[in-house]
Design goal:
The protein has 125 residues and is an alpha+beta fold. The protein is built from 3 helices and 8 strands. A hairpin with a 2-residue loop joins strand 7 and strand 8. It starts with a helix and ends with a helix. InterPro entries: SUSD6 (IPR042866), Sushi/SCR/CCP_sf (IPR035976), Sushi_SCR_CCP_dom (IPR000436).
Amino acid sequence: MSPSFLNSWPSGRIGLVCGLRLLVLSPLLTSGRPSNCSHPLVPEHGGFRCSPSPCRGFPPKSFIRFFCEPGYHISSKEPNSKCRHGKWFPPIPACIKGHGTKEFGVLLHVIPPQMRQHSISSLPL
């Protein structure tokens, strides 16, 4: 628009100024709104379950529970993450190779093959 056009139309100048202010302030206006989390990374040798199940996006305050394959355990004490302000908290854990598997925060010990015969035969029937 030419300056002479803006001078002849006061509402045009006001509209232009208001439009520019709105454009500059738009990120600030939307920053207070809760945002969804992205699909969480799946730990190698593990996975996650949604609460509630099945997963239908990841809105704020949604929970996921991590688990590991047999022979691996979760690297953190907390197997749950919650969507807060568009990020998962606590961060996504890793599955670490070990002698047991830690699923849902409980360490389950695996009986070595050489001990299985003795363990099973010694059980009362």
